[in-house]
Amino acid sequence: METSIFVLGIVIFLALAFDFINGFHDTANAIATSVSTRALKPRVAILMAAAMNFLGAITFTGVAKTIGGSVADPAALDNGIQVVIAALLAAIIWNLVTWWFGIPSSSSHALIGALTGAVFVGAGAGYVKWEGFISILKVLIFSPLIAFAIGYIIMTVLKWIFAKRSPHNVNKGFRTMQILTAAIQAFTHGTNDAQKAMGIITFALVTSEFQDTLDVPLWVKLSAATAMALGTSIGGYKIIKTMGTKIFKIEPINGFAADMAGASVIFSATILHMPVSTTHAITSALLGVGSAKRVSEVKWSVAGRIIITWFITIPISGLLAGLIFKILF
């Protein structure tokens, strides 16, 4: 029992480390536009995002249950703890690599890919719940397309409404409104992303027979929410720079449109209990808004590099998790 508790402690530490890294890796998702338009100072924006992420994280648990039971049945795995350790190590490594290069990749893709790869190698293909994996994959694929479309529509409508207004006055008003939309975006980020670590910890608790259901204990909710909030408080300035300045020149009205589009997709996924890539949703919303503003202004070479990272994250994370499992176990 002592060994089991010790190993479980390692899993919990790694899961919270993933959540912490997810926090500073994905901080840019919520605040990049408000920082780039000077609606908020970076430090103020980061602290606000940390508080709203924490609040969002403790409010919902549906995504955690999906993560905990849709890719594999934790109760059916004899080596579930080892599988989780390999998956978390792979996801953490990929997050750190993409953060180092300032690429806004998906923590969700990394975790789902890593968990699937670890189960595949550690237990066998028969233990992967392919139907659940494919349902998650569909949401991860289609949510960026929906976010792009919503961003494009919102920006097109705003252009039509404010076409004859003074650009200076319009942007002054939307700069103030961006404070609210940044807070909303950070809240929705917490409702979805923090639950991924909660789901992994709950997966480990079930596979270790410390509990029988995928219900998330209160201490897990508070721990994951705190880890993400602390990570968010550090901030990922490299990714903030990419999101806020390198895709296209963002004005307050553009930032408002992108924030609303991204937040609507993320929160809809949370209500449906589905994990979604907050990075993909917000980046795609930015691309949609930029295209509505003027297609030629979008730096498609930067967007292309981001999109490539989206496609390679799941297979690379899966292969990395399988390799780590083989090496360690």
From TrEMBL:
<keyword id="KW-0472">Membrane</keyword>
<feature type="transmembrane region" description="Helical">
    <location>
        <begin position="110"/>
        <end position="128"/>
    </location>
</feature>
<feature type="transmembrane region" description="Helical">
    <location>
        <begin position="44"/>
        <end position="63"/>
    </location>
</feature>
<feature type="transmembrane region" description="Helical">
    <location>
        <begin position="83"/>
        <end position="103"/>
    </location>
</feature>
<dbReference type="Pfam" id="PF01384">
    <property type="entry name" value="PHO4"/>
</dbReference>
<keyword id="KW-0813">Transport</keyword>
<protein>
    <submittedName>
        <fullName>Inorganic phosphate transporter</fullName>
    </submittedName>
</protein>
<feature type="transmembrane region" description="Helical">
    <location>
        <begin position="302"/>
        <end position="325"/>
    </location>
</feature>
<keyword id="KW-0812">Transmembrane</keyword>
<dbReference type="GO" id="GO:0016020">
    <property type="term" value="C:membrane"/>
</dbReference>
<keyword id="KW-1133">Transmembrane helix</keyword>
<dbReference type="GO" id="GO:0005315">
    <property type="term" value="F:phosphate transmembrane transporter activity"/>
</dbReference>
<feature type="transmembrane region" description="Helical">
    <location>
        <begin position="6"/>
        <end position="24"/>
    </location>
</feature>
<dbReference type="GO" id="GO:0035435">
    <property type="term" value="P:phosphate ion transmembrane transport"/>
</dbReference>
<feature type="transmembrane region" description="Helical">
    <location>
        <begin position="140"/>
        <end position="162"/>
    </location>
</feature>
<dbReference type="InterPro" id="IPR001204">
    <property type="entry name" value="Phos_transporter"/>
</dbReference>
